[in-house]
Amino acid sequence: MQQAPTYLNSIKASDEHKNFFFQQFQLACLGQFSYYIESKQEAVVIDPIRDVDDYMYNSQYFYRNLAKSRNANIKYVILTNIHADFIGGHLEIQRKIGAEIVLGNKAKTEYAIKGLEDNGIQIIKFSKDQLQIGEISLRALHTPGHTLESTCFVLVSEGKDYAVFTGDTLFLQEVGRPDLAVADGKISKEDLAGLLYESLRSKIQPLSDEVIVYPGHGAGSSCGKSIGVGTSCTIGNQKKLNYALSDISKEEFVKRLTDIQAPPQYYFFDAKVNQAGPSDVEKVRQQVLKALTYQEVKQLLDDTIIIDSREDLKEGGIEGAINISFSTTFASYVGLLIKPTQKLIVVSSPGKEELTITRLLRIGYENILGYLEGGFEAWKSNGGGVFDTQIVDIKDFTKTDEGRESVYVDVRNVPEFETIGIMENSILLPLPILEQNIDKLPRDKVLHIFCRMGPRAKTAQSILRRHGFQHFKLIQNGGLQEIAKENNLQISPYQ
Length: 495
Hints:
The chain has 495 residues and is of the alpha/beta class. It has 14 helices and 28 strands. Strands 1-2-3-4-5-6-7 form a seven-stranded mixed sheet, with helices on one face. A six-stranded mixed sheet has the order 8-9-10-11-14-15. It has a five-stranded parallel sheet with strand order 16-21-20-17-19. The longest helix has 16 residues, at 189-204. Residues 1-8, 55-59 and 117-127 have low confidence and may be disordered.
C-alpha cells in the first residue's frame, strides 16, 4: 500500500483479530484521530472527518473506501461529542449509505440520531447502552465534562473489554478542555471540569489496566492543554502518567484544567455547524473549487483576504495576503487567525489548490471565492504587489542594519517558552494574539521574527505588513534553537 502524505487521513494502528478488524486514522494537521471497526462485514466509524471519501488519491485512507475494499457495510457513525475543532463526516456517511448516527446522552442536534438515553429528539433507544457490531459490541460510558454529551465507547470482544475510544474525555497525559460548552452561559468551565473529574473516577479508572486507550486527539490539537505525543496507550500506563488519573484533589484538578488559554475562535462556529448539520461537502467543493484570473481576483479584493499557502517565500510575498503554509498546522492557524465567515481567495504552490481548499472545508471555512489560476507567478507577472520577505541565512539573522535598531520578536506559544526557553530581551508575542498586540511593536526598528521552525514567523510578517510594518529579518527554516547555536546566543529560562 502506498504511503499517505502527512496531510491526508493517514493510517496508524491496525489490528486484525479473529472476530474483528480495527483501523486508526490520523489527520496530523488537526491532531485528530478517527476509527474504523468491523466485525462480520458490519462496521462502525468513530469521529470521522468531513471528506469521508478519497477525493485525491486512489487509496484506502478513507472510511467508505476501506469498507468497500473489505465488503463491509458501515452500520453506525459515532460522535464521541459534538466536535468544535473540525466538521464531522457523520452526515456525509449517512447521506451516502444510510448509516445511523450515534451520540451520547444530552446531545442536541437538528438531525435524527440514535441516542444512548432519551433526550427528546427522535431517539431510538437500544439495549443496555450497547451497540452490537457483528460478534463484538461497543459499550457506552457517559463521561460529561469536556461537553455534557461526551461519551466513551468500550470495545467488548468475547466478553472482555479490549479497548476504549475516549474521544475528548481522555488524551495521552491530558484530558479535554472544559470551556467549549459554556457559550449559552448555563454552565461554567469550572462546573464542567468538576463533572470531568467525577467522570474519570467513576467511568475510566475502573477499567482494567490492560485496556487500550484510543483518544480522539493527539499532540498538536488545541482540544487539550498539553496533549502527550503518541497515538495510543493503556489504562494502566495512563494511571501512572496522566495527572488527571492520579490522586489529585478535585479542587486542584479544576484549578489546573481551567487555567487555559482561550480556544481558537472558530471552535464555537464549528460546534454550531456540527450541531445543526454540515452541508454536503461535495456540493460545496464544486462551488468553491473555481479557477480565477488575476483580473477577477483584483475585482474581489475589497472585502476578501488572500490566503497564501506557499512554503517557500524567497521569490517574494503577496502584498496584503496572509501566508499560512503547510509547514505548520495549516487549518488550525487559519482557524486561529481568520474568522470563519471571512471571504477568502487561495494562492498556493502549483498543484496544491484543491488540497488547500479541502483543508479549509475540513474546519468549516466555506466562504471561498476560488483560487488564483497560475498562483504566485500569475500574480507577479500581472503586476500584483510583491514584497521582499527579507529572508536571510541563519548566520546573518542577528546582524543589525546600518542606521536602524533591531528588536527580536518571538511568536511561539507559551508552552514552548516554558519547555525550550527564550531569548533574553526578546518581545514575546504568540502568533494567535499578535494582531491584538501590534501596539507593543516599534515601527521604526527592524523586527527579527522567529518561532520554532520558521513558518509562523512568515505568517507573523504577513500580518504585520497588512498593518504597515516594513522592516524585518526572517530565516527560511529554523527557529530559536538553531539561531542560538549558530550565533552563540544563550537561551534563558522563561519565568
